[in-house]
Write a structure and sequence with these properties.
Blueprint lengths: L76 H13 L7 E2 L5 H4 L2 H4 L6 E2 L1 H10 L1 H13 L1
Antiparallel strand pairs: 1-2
Helix pairs in contact: 1-4
Length: 147
């Protein structure tokens, strides 16, 4: 980054995003200018070591990346909501909700959501059930909004 200023320049963004082919590695490399030509260097003769203070040499590199999603593989709203429900109610962190983990309000519809009748709900199963019953779900929401 040319003419980097510690006081205000904490990030750098490319004008255009850079694509990274699969397997790309990102490295952070820094060079410190402790020469007399560096006007921000108070004393070029001092030995400067790495440290946590601003008068020491320091560097931390963060990388933010964005992974483009193919529109065809983008999750549906039902898939997103189903995943949220599993995360919310999965007490033993096994990526599914067993009947005993489900809150009382879901006990009533558990059997309808449990499409394979194995006593467990997966995100895929909940999303499929939501898709199957979407018209009833929309109707129920509509009644609630009118009350």
């Amino acid at each position: 980054v040319p003419a980097y200023d510690f006081n205000w320049q904490t990030g750098y963004r490319f004008v255009e995003p850079k694509p990274f082919p699969k397997g790309t590695r990102i490295h952070c490399v820094a060079h410190f200018d402790n020469s007399e030509k560096n006007l921000n260097n108070p004393n070029p003769d001092d030995r400067v070591k790495w440290g946590t203070q601003t008068w020491d040499e320091m560097l931390i590199g963060y990388f933010d990346i964005a992974i483009p999603k193919d529109q065809a593989t983008r999750p549906s709203p039902f898939e997103l909501r189903a995943e949220e429900l599993i995360v919310q109610f999965d007490k033993n962190f096994d990526d599914k909700v067993e009947r005993r983990e489900a809150p009382l309000k879901f006990q009533i519809v558990f059997a309808q959501l449990d499409l394979d009748s194995n006593g467990e709900l997966t995100a895929e199963e909940v999303a499929e059930a939501m898709e199957k019953y979407k018209d009833q779900l929309r109707g129920r929401r509509g009644r609630r909004n009118r009350e």
